[in-house]
Amino acid sequence: MRRRLGSVRAKATLGATLVVAAALIAAGIAVLLSLRSNLTDQADAQADSVARSVALKIAGRTPYKDLDLGDSEDHPVQVVDRDGRVLAVSDDLEAISGTGVPGVTPVDNPGEERDNEADDDDPEVGEIGDITWHSSGKATVDEETAEYRFAEVEVTDLRDETVLVYAGAPLEAQHSAVRTAATVMLIGLPLLLVVVSGTTWLVTRRALRPVEGIRAEMAAITASEDLTRRVPEPDSHDEIARLARTTNETLAALEASVERQRRFVADASHELRSPIASLRTQLEVGAAHPELLDVDGAVEDTVRLQQLAADLLLLARLDAGERPGQARLDLAALAREETSQRPADRIPVDVRTDEGLEGEGLEVAGSRGQLARVLGNLIDNAQRHARSRITVTVRAEGAWAVLEVGDDGDGVPRAERERIFERFVRLDDARSRDDGGAGLGLAIGRDVAERHGGRLTVGESADGGALFQLRLPTG
């Protein structure tokens, strides 16, 4: 049960139902209040009409005792003077409230003292005032009490006396209409909520069905560890389709990364096996026949093994996301220092810098050790392929610092200029391992360049050989 309530489908259904319920309740209350207000206005209009009708009779020559006030059940009427004395009431009116005068028995009117009869000199009609107020109250007719809406109007009779006329209109129609509307809403609201929740449940289930397919396939991939599988991509162009495509892209990148890692481990094992085996053989021969021990060869294998281990450790750190520092260093000075420490190179290295850099230098941010390693790898690569000339050039190019290493060798074929930056790649397969290296130098150089915000590319030098260009931001 908890799992169902925790699902996206259940949450969406519950949320939609609550929102619709709140909206329907608010709309229902507004409708009921509006209906009640409209019906109250209609009752006020009816009470106004009855009150004015009675006032018109009083303003004429009709005596109070002869007033026809109609049926009290439909429209109870009460006529009082300024002193609160009841002058006339409608038939069968037994009790009244809401008018301010609770009496329902007219006062005695001996002779013609209070009759609404005019002298010959009086005007033909009295004066009728405006409706002064409305109020709600109750009236009892034939022992049945009901609610009414009362209106008050002032009228001056032919004896020049101001009296008040109260007339009521029943509110039963209002109450009945409001009760009916409320009943319909109470019955319809749950039914509508059931429809909304059911529809939302079905729609979300259909919408989330691809997500379940993605989840199931991901679970299968996790269980099988088969990264060649892909999640199904729906034909729609919505967020779920984009999620599926992104998931497949992630799986593809993960597959490539794992494959690269496997290949790296296999190649590293293969590369380490050769110098270790060679070193072991030499040591075993030296142990059995000391006079045959090749000390120079053992030292070379040890150095090569040490360099290979250092390359592998650096690649491992780069793959783990190691970021270079933000120390500032002079790229031109770095080039001069690194080349000056290579007196045993087969071919001397010529270092050139722009004239404007002689005094100011060319600063970049990063790791001095990593950048020196890149420069050393590029020079080592040039030493293996150059015939007679190697040139290192440092110059500024806009917001970039450019370090170039060129040689006069055979160069790199255009079709191979990207592949040489892959790990353990050597273009000359026939070349000996001792001369060709492990094929990690250029891969390390590109990784270091990218982590410094730059790039490492290869082209053709002015001497016809290879030209490796390292570009780093100066900002």
Q: How is this structure best described in words?
A:
With 475 residues, the protein is α+β, with helices and mostly antiparallel strands. The protein has three domains: 1-220, no CATH class; 239-317, Helix Hairpins (Orthogonal Bundle), CATH 1.10.287; 325-473, Histidine kinase-like ATPase, C-terminal domain (Heat Shock Protein 90, 2-Layer Sandwich), CATH 3.30.565.10. It has helices spanning 2-5, 8-59, 172-224, 239-288, 295-319, 331-340, 357-360, 368-385, 433-436, 441-451, and strands at residues 77-81, 86-89, 93-97, 127-141, 144-156, 162-170, 328-330, 349-353, 363-365, 390-397, 400-407, 455-460, 466-473. The strands form three sheets. Strands 2-1-6-5-4-3 form a six-stranded antiparallel β-sheet. Helix 2 (8-59) runs antiparallel to helix 3 (172-224) and helix 8 runs antiparallel to helix 10. The longest helix is centred in the middle third of the chain and has 53 residues, at 172-224. 25% of the residues are buried. Mean pLDDT is 83; it is low at 1-5, 110-114 and 429-434.
